[in-house]
Amino acid sequence: MTANITLQDIQAARGLVQKHLLRTPLVYSPEFSAASGNQVYFKLECFQRTHAFKARGALNKVASLSQEEKECGVIAASSGNHALGVAYASRLLGIQASVVMPVRAPATKVEQAKAFGATVILHGETYDDALAHARLLAQEGGKVILPSFDDLKVIAGQGTIALEVLEDLPDVALFLGPIGGGGLVSGLSVALDELKHPARVVGVEAEGAPCMLASLQAGERLKLPKIKTIADGIAVQQPGVLNFDFVRRYGVEVLTVSDDQIFMGMVRMLGEMRLAVEPAAAAAPAALLFDDRLIGKGLNVCCIISGGNISQAMLEQVVKRNQAPNK
Predict the structure, then answer these.
(1) Which residue among the candidates 79, 148, 215, 306 is catalytic per the annotation?
(2) Which of 54, 109, 143, 153 is catalytic?
(3) Got the DSSP string for 107-154?
(4) Model's pTM, two decimal places?
(5) Disulfide check for 238: which of 16, 29, 39, 223 has CB 3.0–4.6 Å away?
């Protein structure tokens, strides 16, 4: 049976978002518009409560749990931003939360998760390692595991972004956002399909972690044996079951950008928009600047700036590069 999400599901999630989270701004960028040959608008999810869009899906999932499930406590695996969303939502609703993060997760995300009241467990080199460990701990401890992207409630929560954008920019022609496991592009695609809106969705992966693109090319979900990218937020070895289905069903196009291009996207966001964004959030802006398939199309583009939880070390590199002559 094919899994489905309805407009009512996304609207119900919107009610939670309006109550507990922020309606993030949609900002026109003259600089990126001129550089790409499109009319570029940034949906600034870096200004969200947890400084990342993941709070939307996490909140919708946590709120959907039964009272018995809430009393058991929850556990999630995350490279960082889903952990923050789960921690924040659990604190709001009075639930005990644990999050498993890779050992190399940015310190800023680890500390923020702790500040929101979650127990943080560092395990493994990748998100997929952390997920396997979280599943084991959930089984051993009787906790409810909260998927980062492969879940209908999570996907519906991410789809609330599309509802907000369409109110602000009804004639948007293209949504552009990063892909890790595929939760964001899935939510956008479902919302647009339910609303019969013609806008396309294009997802951007890191060249060093192209799990969705590789899976689409193979015609089945693949798990990459190795990944390497500076974009920790989209460093995923295998797309979600539901997400892979939605991406194929709704014809989401997938592009990749190099780490060098991602870094330059961060530099340009800081220098021209005065925004410090994390590497995953710079993937979509980088595609606007460097991918010939997007340049010079004259489209109204909504570019999702997915998060602003940048490490101090990375920020220092970006600032230094932005200040360098002939950057």
Answers:
(1) 306
(2) 54
(3) HHHHHHHHHTTPEEEE-SSSHHHHHHHHHHHHHHHTPEE--SSSSHHH
(4) 0.94
(5) 223
